[in-house]
Amino acid sequence: MSNRTVQVREEAPQPWRDSWAMLPVVVIAILMAQGIVLAFLRSGTSYDGAEQLLYSQYLDWGYGRSQPPLYTWALIAMHRIFGVGILAEHVLKFGLMSAGLLAVWNIARRIGASVPVAATALAACFLVVEIGWEFQRNYAHSVLLFALTGALAIAYLRGSLLLFGAIAAAIVLAKYNGILVIGALVVADGIGPRLFWSLRGAAALAVALLLCVPHGLWALSNANAVFEITDRFRAEDFRPWAAIAAYGIAATGVGVLLAIVAALARLRARLTVPDGPPRVMWHWAWVYWTVCLAAAVLAGLDQVNMRWLLPGVVPFLPVFAIMVNGAHHRLAGWVRWIGLALLLLFTGGQWIESTRINARTDYDYASLYAELAPPGTDAVPVALISNYAVFANLRLYGPITVLHPSMPDLSRFDPDSAVIVADARRGAEVARWARDLGLCAQGEPVTTELPRRTGPDTLPVELLTVSRAACP
């Protein structure tokens, strides 16, 4: 690729040209309104949201299922403000999604893009289905990492290295692959301006390390929780080509629409990367993706999730928008309209998916909660649950403690009695786990039904009271 500086080609002056400055406001308004609407449409939260309903019951330096604690801490704060409910989760998640998208716009402007080109970068985010669809449907920690990666880029472009250190610590506490995000930027900086190759740069990284020490100490003493789900992605034997193929599939899923746009632009003119800050952002994205590929091969993975590649999209898209606009400015305008159309399509699609397709967000959890805590009951019930993606949603409907084997430290709860709440296939499995906790069956299990609100489908649920007093 040529190293010469490219002048960004601007569209001919139009009366409505500056109206693209309002695109961030429009996008944020749509997303925050969507969060409120989905809070009313959904009876249960997402898979990742249900996981957080487990961990947000207590404050700690770390939690289970290979996830750092920052998102959980933020959700606990939202629960204090809005109460335990879907609205609290959506204010957090859609707020973070909006912040990440606004950061992409801001990065584009800081590296020299005009208002329409920054709008192209923002709209191009919705050409990545994982961002436009999955952020709304499911993800939690990945949305936080997306927003913080944008904040890290802005701190770097401002030269605020101490702020950079604080954000870097937050990135590590948001998602463990955030370490690769930071490392990739340090390498990209070494290729270019070398801001980190100074005492200030070393101090920034030292700040990040210092802020991560408490969680690091927790992780050392809870290694099983840190690596709990990593083995599911590994092949039984070392097969580099399997990792490369899995990475290729994930990269195709993330970038296929962007690749089509790039190919169309290349038909008109050569795509070139401007010198200066855009080149640092460009290197950052590609170094990150290269490191992810190397990590997948070295770890022997045969599965690579698309969401692992999303942090690289944040520095990539602002430069991509400049390149596309320089080669084919009319195509850049089409990207803006297509991205906005996809946002509206994804928004409406979530309404259907949440009520007609995804059973977890449509079950009548209030009826099941009423069986566990009948009106007039003062005691807060304790539920030992099987499928947390379903039964953790009971917390949305009243005071209840829900416990699951994936929680690393159950000794803090130590109930004298509880009710097993399990789908019919896993009742015996949960009963064995209850005995390990010193809780034995008190009577026979009762089978009930968890109905859906919008269809005839029901989920058979087994309820069984267990207590310490029942143990011989």
Protein topology:
Elements: H1 23-41, H2 47-55, H3 70-82, H4 86-110, H5 115-124, H6 129-137, H7 141-158, H8 161-174, H9 178-191, H10 199-211, H11 213-221, H12 223-226, H13 240-268, H14 277-298, H15 313-327, H16 329-357, H17 365-372, E1 382-385, H18 388-391, E2 401-403, E3 417-423, H19 427-436, E4 440-441, E5 446-451, E6 458-467
Parallel strand pairs: 1-2, 1-3
Antiparallel strand pairs: 3-6, 4-6, 5-6
List the uncertain runs: 1-12
Q: What's the helix count?
A: 19
Mean pLDDT rating:
91
The arrangement of helices and strands along the chain is HHHHHHHHHHHHHHHHHEHEEHEEE
Count of domains: 2
Please estimate the helix content.
55-70%
Radius of gyration: 24 Å
Give a quick rundown of the structure.
With 472 residues, the protein is α/β, with parallel strands linked by helices. Helix content is 58%, strand content 7%.
Verbal overview:
The protein has 472 residues and is an alpha/beta fold. The protein folds into two domains: 17-357, no CATH class; 363-467, Translation Initiation Factor IF3, CATH 3.30.110. Helices cover 58% and strands 7% of the residues. It is built from 19 helices and six strands. It has helices at residues 23-41, 47-55, 70-82, 86-110, 115-124, 129-137, 141-158, 161-174, 178-191, 199-211, 213-221, 223-226, 240-268, 277-298, 313-327, 329-357, 365-372, 388-391, 427-436; strands at 382-385, 401-403, 417-423, 440-441, 446-451, 458-467. Strands 1, 2, 3, 4, 5 and 6 form a six-stranded mixed β-sheet that branches. Strand 5 and strand 6 (458-467) form a beta hairpin. The N and C termini lie far apart (75 Å).
